[in-house]
Amino acid sequence: MSRVALQAAVTMGQLQNKMDVIGNNMANVNTTGYKTRQSEFSSLLFQQLNNLTDPANAEGRLTPDGIRIGNGARLSNTTIDLKQGALKETGRLLDAALLKDNHLFQVSVTENGETETQFTRAGNFYLNPLENDQVMLTNENGHPMMGDAGPIVLADDFDGISITSSGAIEVTRNGNTEVEDQLSLVEAVRPQLLEAVGTNNFRLSEQTEANFNVDEIIPFVNPADVEIKTGALENSNVDMAKQMTDLVSSQRVYQLNARSISMSDQMQGLINQLR
C-alpha cells in the first residue's frame, strides 16, 4: 500500500470513531443529565527523511534537515463537557437537578460481584423496597444512591419524603419532619480524567486512581456548597446544531481521504502502464 493510501486509511478509521461519538451525542439529546462527549485528535508518529545534502537556510535552523512525513491522525481522547444543561420542571418530589457545573451524585454499582462508586448528573430518583420494612433511594436503573454513611436506606413508615436544596433527605412521620440522610456529592476538578461507563454514569479508571490523588481530582462537596433544584431535572447539554455541523465536517473529511486513496490507486495504475 502506498504511503498516501496508508495515511488516508488510518485517518478514516479514526474519523469513523469520531462520527460514532457524535452519533452517541445525538442519540442522547433527550437523556436526563447526559453530558456531551468531544473527540480530540493528535498526529501519529512522523518519519524523518534525511534526503537533503545541502539544505537551504542551514544557518540558524531549529528543525532537523530533510522532510518529516506523518502517518495520519488518531483519536487521542474523548473529553466530557460537564456544563449544566437546561432545567425541566417536573414537580416530582424525588427529582433533583444540580445547579453547579462539575458537581456529581454518587451511585453504587455492583457488576460481576464487584461494587464500585460511579458518578452521574441524572437526578431522577426512586424508592425501591427492601426487607425489614425498609426502602432504598436508587437511580432509574435500581442502583443505590450514596449518602453520608453509604447507600441511603430509610424505614418505610413515613408519610412524606423530599429532597432539600442542600441535598438533605427530609422524612415526615406523624406530622414531624426530620433530616434522616444527606446526598453525597463530589466535584470533578479534572473532568477530563473521568471515563463514561454507560447508563449515563462516569468513573475513574484504575490507571487514574493509581497515578493521582483521588481526593484532589474528585473531592467531596461540603453540604453548605450544594445547590439543588428539587422538582426538576437537568436536560442533556447536547447542542444539536454543533453536532450536525461536526458530523457534516467529519463526513467531508472522510470523503476527502477516501478520494485520496482512489486517486493514489489511479496514479499507480497509470505509472504501471508506462512503457
TrEMBL record:
* Domain Flagellar basal-body/hook protein C-terminal, first and last residues per copy: 230-274
Mind telling me which PROSITE patterns this protein's record contains? FLAGELLA_BB_ROD
- Places the protein is found: Bacterial flagellum basal body
Has keyword Chloroplast? no
Note whether Translocase occurs among the keywords: no
Q: Where is the Flagellar hook protein FlgE/F/G-like D1 domain?
A: 104-170
Instruction: Domain (Flagellar basal body rod protein N-terminal): give its ranges.
Output: 11-35
Secretion signal: which residues?
none
Q: Which NCBIfam families match?
A: FlgEFG_subfam
Q: Which family does it belong to?
A: Belongs to the flagella basal body rod proteins family.
- Its recorded name reads Flagellar basal-body rod protein FlgG
The protein's organism comes out as: Aquibacillus albus
* Native organism taxonomy: Bacteria, Bacillati, Bacillota, Bacilli, Bacillales
